[in-house]
Inverse folding.
């Protein structure tokens, strides 16, 4: 594992990892299979660790236990394309039975590194247009997984921003312009903005200093809000974004629950728990002999709405009862 020692990760899993003791390796003659995981953030990121726990628990429920019949090798690219290429090559050199690729940054690196090792991807916006698969129903090749192809979710974020703060007339949109999700979701927001009476301003996320500088300048004019589109780079700066939006009194709607637990206002996006459990099922099927070419690419089936009431109170916003009633989780 990269970014933290294997023993530390096992300790993280607590009770779920009770079946993982090192001594079990000597006691079990069962064939050891290998799963590589390339993550969009560093392997010591708390949010990534929590999601990996869900994935590992899903595998355990299907009969795969690390140290007995499975070894999991983690690499965290930290949303850096150079690191993504480096760790992709590193994982391929280990010749795993299957690789789990998380996020849009990592899949091109893995595709360049191998055309034979099975790959299951998560959260890739349009895998057909990007050339990763032949079609959603029949992927072909060595790649399949779970896409996030609905750019129109951007209009939902704009609606939520207007619903919780009706006085909004301006919205900054944090995006990664190098990703299809960044341009696609911004396009959907921009198309709806005029009818909602909101002027939108793109912020191309590159580093922490640029985020801080741009948001401070944007907040100098009143009646503004913030939308964070899908981006591992933005998620790596979620604590900064949450801190700044509170200080600058900017209501923020984001794509991932991690922003809300960090102190952001609202998130609406793919249910990550469901996604990682489904990923475990595809890895299981491949380990049992099925081919990625025959496993259809799946779209998201569950979304969740999370609201931080403590943040709403700090921003002096009253959350409409109708919005609270729709929430899947409320943080108080």
């Amino acid at each position: 594992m990269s970014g933290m020692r294997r023993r530390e990760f096992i300790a993280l899993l607590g009770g779920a990892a009770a079946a993982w003791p090192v001594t079990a390796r000597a006691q079990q003659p069962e064939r050891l299979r290998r799963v590589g995981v390339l993550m969009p953030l560093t392997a010591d990121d708390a949010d990534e660790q929590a999601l990996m726990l869900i994935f590992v628990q899903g595998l355990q429920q299907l009969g795969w236990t690390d140290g007995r019949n499975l070894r999991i090798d983690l690499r965290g690219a930290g949303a850096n394309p150079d690191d993504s290429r480096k760790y992709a090559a590193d994982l391929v050199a280990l010749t795993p039975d299957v690789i789990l690729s998380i996020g849009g940054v990592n899949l091109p690196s893995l595709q360049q590194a191998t055309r034979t090792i099975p790959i299951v991807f998560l959260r890739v916006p349009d895998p057909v247009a990007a050339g990763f698969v032949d079609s959603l129903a029949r992927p072909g090749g060595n790649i399949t997984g779970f896409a996030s192809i609905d750019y129109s979710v951007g209009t939902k974020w704009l609606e939520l921003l207007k619903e919780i703060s009706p006085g909004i007339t301006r919205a900054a949109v944090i995006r990664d312009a190098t990703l299809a999700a960044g341009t696609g979701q911004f396009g959907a927001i921009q198309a709806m903005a005029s009818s909602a009476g909101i002027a939108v301003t793109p912020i191309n996320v590159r580093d922490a200093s640029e985020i801080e500088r741009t948001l401070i300048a944007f907040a100098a004019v009143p009646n503004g809000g913030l939308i964070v589109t899908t981006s591992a780079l933005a998620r790596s700066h979620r604590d900064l974004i949450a801190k700044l939006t509170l200080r600058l009194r900017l209501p923020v709607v984001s794509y991932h629950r991690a922003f809300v637990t960090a102190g952001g206002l609202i998130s609406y996006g793919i249910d990550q728990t469901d996604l990682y459990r489904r990923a475990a099922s595809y890895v299981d099927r491949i380990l049992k002999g099925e081919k990625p070419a025959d496993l259809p690419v799946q779209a998201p089936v569950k979304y969740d709405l999370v609201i931080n009431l403590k943040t709403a109170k700090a921003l002096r916003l009253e959350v409409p009862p109708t919005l609270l009633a729709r929430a899947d989780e409320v943080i108080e």
Summary: Residues 153-270+304-331 form a domain with the Rossmann fold fold (CATH 3.40.50.2300). The mean pLDDT is 89. The longest helix spans residues 46-61. The chain has two domains: 6-149+272-302, 153-270+304-331.
